[in-house]
């Protein structure tokens, strides 16, 4: 089963993690205790590829927003902005990694950015915007001082300073709607038998319309989307961990009762069939794809 280090998130989602770790170094850090109500973790990416070499990194999205400081090759569509906020991405997140680069990221808890801002993140779904459009100028200014020459501890301290400006004056107790969202997400992660929205409604006792409103405001996506992504994370994690059993059995384990439907869903998100993905992973391992790195 996938690694679950937190009640509200997993480390699943990176496609072909062994190959990713050959090209990109990923590290994660816990947030400061006073920010942990809203922040899941800090993460850092670093890469240095030979001239002319490009690595197409691919990640299955989570129901979380991210704040990033990006140094190196700029992402398409963001211009010269370096401090960015990205809402939940509903499709696979693809980035062509080239040259040298460095990214410091803050991954919010599901609903955490909405709770911190006091407003819906629905307009951010499938969008990346300049952080200055959402966060205080002091926060963006401090984050703008982050660069690749800093050690991880220094970078985390600076990012924490910036986030504290954003959190100043925010209520840390009594946000009942956000507390409810966190409790719901914890339940979805803890009980993988929940694969349908109606099951959530019946077993957790939350009215369907309220469930949908909470997720739309705090996450920017539907409960159905969250359930679908979590179980696809589980499937891909099992394949990456070397699952060699029947794909039909794997589909049933995670709530698909029609293997054809499972195959279509997998291909639509991952970009290839479950069988082809497993074969590619096996080929990578056979040719020495597993190297020291930090994809976990």
Essential attributes:
single chain; 296 residues; alpha+beta; Jelly Rolls; two-stranded antiparallel ribbon; 11 helices; globular; disordered N terminus
Break the fold down into its secondary structure elements and pairings.
Layout: H1 17-23, E1 24-29, E2 39-48, E3 54-59, E4 66-72, E5 83-86, E6 93-98, E7 100-108, H2 112-117, E8 128-130, H3 137-143, H4 152-167, H5 176-190, H6 197-204, H7 208-218, H8 223-240, H9 247-253, H10 259-270, H11 274-286
Helix pairs in contact: 3-4
Overall tally of structural domains:
2
Q: Please give the order of strands in the largest beta sheet.
A: 1-2-7-4-5-8
Give the ordered list of helices and strands: HEEEEEEEHEHHHHHHHHH
Radius of gyration: 19 Å
The first-level CATH class name of the largest domain? Mainly Beta
The averaged pLDDT comes out at 89
CATH architecture designation of the largest domain: Sandwich
CATH topology-level name of the largest domain:
Jelly Rolls
Net shape: globular
Tell me how many strands there are: 8
Compute the separation of the termini in Å. Answer: 14 Å
Residue stretches low in confidence (pLDDT < 50, at least 5 long) are: 1-5, 286-296
Strand content: 15-25%
The total of helices stands at 11
What is the helix content?
40-55%
